[in-house]
Write a structure and sequence with these properties.
Number of domains: 1
Largest sheet: 6 strands, mixed
Structural class: alpha/beta
Strand content: 25-35%
CATH class: Alpha Beta
Number of helices: 3
CATH architecture: 2-Layer Sandwich
Oligomer: single chain
Order of helices and strands: HEEHEEEEEEH
Distance between the termini: 34 Å
Number of strands: 8
Shape: elongated
């Protein structure tokens, strides 16, 4: 009962998912033969809490799809590298006001505009990257950028990251028409 409710919640979150998700892959790779994965250690500069959330979400998603997690790299599986870096970006919120004047006929007019910032001028984003590597060769990469809110509790961040990972891994394996 808990799993269907979680999937419904994740589906709702996916409906609000970021349009910044990007996927790229090595053309000509037969992804149908891959059914095992190993999770690599996070990079030292990665945010450890975010990296653990990404690791957990990726592992759960792949196992739910029938993939086998292996403790060591194997030639028939892939190694999943994951990163979660927090960055600061300019906020895109503001109120724009335009003023204008005009006339009828041969007379001219005047206009102007101003943007009034609302809220913070910067926001934190989490840059999520998943790389699938086999025998040292990058086969698939998924990237997304999530806006982080300062008032989120850990369960909200877990749900947001899980939804982003599901969106990225939902595009794996790639199909010819993507």
């Amino acid at each position: 009962m808990k799993m269907p409710l979680m999937m419904i919640g994740l589906s709702l979150l996916l409906g609000c998912a970021s349009p910044s998700a990007q996927v790229d892959y090595q053309a000509g790779t037969d992804f149908s033969q891959i059914r095992a994965f190993t999770l690599a250690s996070p990079s030292p500069e990665a945010d450890s809490l975010m990296a653990q959330r990404i690791r957990t979400a990726a592992s759960q998603h792949l196992q739910h799809r029938g993939w086998q997690q292996q403790p060591h790299e194997s030639s028939d599986g892939i190694t999943l590298f994951y990163q979660g870096h927090i960055a600061t970006r300019p906020a895109k919120s503001g109120l724009q006001i335009g003023l204008g004047a005009g006339s009828f006929g041969s007379s001219g007019g005047i206009s102007g505009g101003v943007t009034i910032p609302i809220g913070d001028d910067e926001q934190q984003v989490l840059l999520v990257q998943l790389d699938m590597v086999q025998n040292g060769q990058l086969l698939w990469r998924g990237q997304d950028e999530l806006r982080l809110r300062a008032n989120q509790d850990p369960s909200q961040r877990n749900a947001q990251i899980s939804a982003a990972v599901q969106q990225l891994l939902g595009q794996f394996p790639p199909t010819a028409n993507k």
